[in-house]
Write a structure and sequence with these properties.
The chain has a domain of about 35 residues. About 65% of the residues lie in helices and about 0% in strands. The protein contains two helices and no strands.
Length: about 70
């Protein structure tokens, strides 16, 4: 399968230098297997979105159940 992503498929996000430095320390340590800052940040954002979606669905389910009682 060929990667068809172009530079137009990306946006730039700015983060505080101190946070970037912390990310770089993790990458340099090699303990989590990340090869680049972008790889780690993308993974962290994906995980956070999953958590937010899960929490939101749990809240929706709670409201649905409480409305039926």
């Amino acid at each position: 399968m060929r990667n068809t992503e172009t530079k137009d498929d990306y946006v730039t996000v700015r983060i505080p230098k101190l946070l970037a430095d912390e990310i770089d320390k993790i990458i340099e340590s090699g303990t989590l297997g990340y090869r680049s800052r972008a790889e780690m940040v993308n993974d962290a954002i994906r995980l956070r979105i999953e958590i937010l979606r899960f929490n939101n669905s749990m809240k929706s389910n709670m409201f649905e159940k409480s409305g039926k009682e």
